[in-house]
Task: inverse folding
């Protein structure tokens, strides 16, 4: 079935009903919006006035010319978010504060007008149409207490779809979340991958009637295939993936029924894939860093923002038949990688794929330290109980199967410290991604 994003975007870019959405129509809309965004930002935002000094939007003759513009980085926002504002602070409806996962204690703030928030609600409404039918109930296992929070905007989007959003919030007690699924006759779950894995592996999960959960949407962190397979096995329902970050206006791309890559909300965002080392754009199909430009945001537009996430455009057409671009499941974050033995990269994604299939494992924390020039990998496991020794042995074996790990061990420059069992899980808000903690003072970016 065609992604519901296609007819939505067809209308959004002003095509007449019945006129097919084409790449040419979309490109010409995006170029016009890109120029308008640059003009708006240069005129209204002190940051972009300086950052894009001497650059005229008329210089952009094709979309590819965007590569001549400088990047915007998370550090730019950290330095002074208010300089990004294109409207008065009074017109800002919601400010989202993201704690930095780096060494600084600075927080990154993103500002949204009521109109900006409306764009997100509109996307959530159409994006959720892929997996939720009118009349169904969706349990939102993400923050939603505050107006304008992800849970609140998703609830509004679902309401427009004729479905009902029930905000549970981040899971702190699996039994309570499972009880709510049963009591409220929930049809769909939306949450963070490790949190959903925790529910699927909880002892109470057998109390959920078979067929109760009809779909699951994973969001806000790297989604390993291990998690997808486990959830599909336990609930026997399709698992969809959403890719987005606060800076994108929360929503970015969502799977269609084919579940083989997310379709991008191309009327609101222009995505590029670049070589993170050289900054040069990469051809479709090549893996690189996701860079995006907002096309419709007024409060705090972002131009060529470096997301730090690694992915690629899938060049082959999607089975659903859309002309919209398809972004592969994000392969992890640049900042989440550590270099071992001086040359091999290990990512949280590698660890997730190797460790999360282990039965009984619910989450883990990885840290790299150094002792006498030797890298040490420390792993702390959070389990649902059961024989800890056996799980530690399996985890050690699984680690040894990661090519980077065995290569570095074989070279004699990595040691795995005795595995530890954590007595409680690490709560994630979703805004700070799970990452390998590098305590050697050496960072890749
Ligand atoms: Zn599709």
Result:
């Amino acid at each position: 079935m065609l992604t519901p994003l296609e007819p939505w975007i067809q209308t959004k870019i002003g095509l007449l009903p019945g006129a097919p959405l084409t790449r040419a129509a979309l490109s010409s809309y995006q170029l016009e919006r890109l120029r308008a965004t640059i003009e708006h930002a240069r005129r209204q935002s002190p940051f972009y006035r300086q950052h894009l000094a001497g650059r005229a939007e008329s210089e952009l003759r094709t979309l590819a010319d965007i590569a001549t513009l400088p990047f915007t980085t998370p550090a730019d926002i950290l330095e002074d978010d208010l300089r990004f504002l294109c409207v008065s602070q009074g017109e800002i409806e919601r400010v989202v504060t993201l704690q930095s996962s780096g060494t600084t204690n600075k927080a990154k703030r993103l500002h949204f007008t009521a109109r900006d928030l409306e764009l997100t609600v509109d996307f959530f409404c159409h994006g959720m149409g892929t997996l939720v039918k009118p009349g169904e109930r969706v349990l939102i296992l993400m923050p939603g207490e505050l107006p304008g929070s992800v849970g609140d905007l998703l609830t509004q989007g679902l309401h427009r779809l004729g479905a009902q959003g029930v905000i549970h919030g981040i899971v702190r007690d699996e039994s309570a979340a499972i009880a709510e699924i049963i009591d409220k006759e929930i049809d769909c779950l939306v949450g963070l991958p490790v949190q959903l894995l925790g529910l699927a592996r909880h002892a109470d999960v057998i109390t959920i009637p078979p067929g109760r959960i009809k779909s699951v949407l994973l969001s806000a962190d790297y989604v390993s295939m291990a998690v997808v397979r486990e959830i599909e096995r336990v609930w026997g329902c399709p698992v969809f993936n959403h890719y987005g970050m606060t800076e994108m206006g929360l929503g970015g791309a969502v799977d269609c029924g084919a579940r083989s890559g997310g379709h991008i909300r191309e009327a609101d965002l222009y995505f590029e894939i670049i070589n993170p080392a050289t900054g040069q754009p990469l051809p479709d199909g090549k893996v690189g860093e996701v860079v995006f430009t907002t096309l419709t945001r007024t409060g705090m537009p972002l131009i060529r923002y470096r997301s730090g996430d690694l992915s690629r455009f899938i060049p082959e057409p999607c089975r659903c038949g859309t002309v919209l671009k398809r972004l592969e499941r994000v392969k992890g974050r640049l900042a989440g990688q550590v270099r071992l033995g001086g040359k091999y990269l290990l990512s949280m994604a590698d660890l997730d794929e190797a460790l999360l299939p282990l039965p009984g494992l619910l989450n883990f924390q990885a840290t790299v330290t150094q002792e006498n020039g030797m890298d040490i990998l420390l792993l702390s496991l959070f389990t649902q109980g059961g024989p800890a020794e056996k799980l530690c042995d399996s985890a050690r074996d699984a680690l040894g199967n990661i090519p980077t790990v065995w290569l570095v061990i074989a070279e004699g420059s990595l040691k795995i410290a005795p595995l530890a069992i954590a007595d409680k899980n690490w709560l994630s808000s979703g805004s700070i991604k799970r990452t390998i903690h590098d305590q050697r003072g050496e960072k890749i970016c």
